[in-house]
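ok so for the tutorial part 2 we go from a plain amino acid sequence to predicted structure tokens. step 1 is just haveing the sequence, like this:
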Amino acid sequence: MSRLEPPEYVKGWGELIRAHRMLMGVSQRTLARRLQMSERSLSDIEVGRRNCPPGFLDAVERVVKEFDTDVDRAIRAGADSVAEQSHELSRIRIEVGDTPDAEWNRAVVGRAAVEGRVLMPQLVQKFPEGSAVTLQAAAR
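step 2 — the prediction. this is what the tokens look like for a chain of 140 residues:
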């Protein structure tokens, strides 16, 4: 059995947890939902009001890995779309808004656009309950 990180309750790991969250570009609410915990508990860990529980860094790193997998999948989908369209613009519509799932999708697409250099996200319409982002897959 592998060792948990941290192996016991520890103080001072909140900034590391925050750094992982910021790297993904998601809110505390979104990360907390992915970790199946309250936003308040995550906030308390990040600012040092609560100790980091055993295995919590492992759980955060699993979420980061899930995020990275989603980014890779988006990059591949964009590249495939470009290949299928013979380098013409191809549009993929992704709904974004104020929910944790929508925020996750937007962060994934944004990272994929930067890292993959294939997707070109454009905000096309704003609604009170959220927005729609149209992604143009194009060779850049």
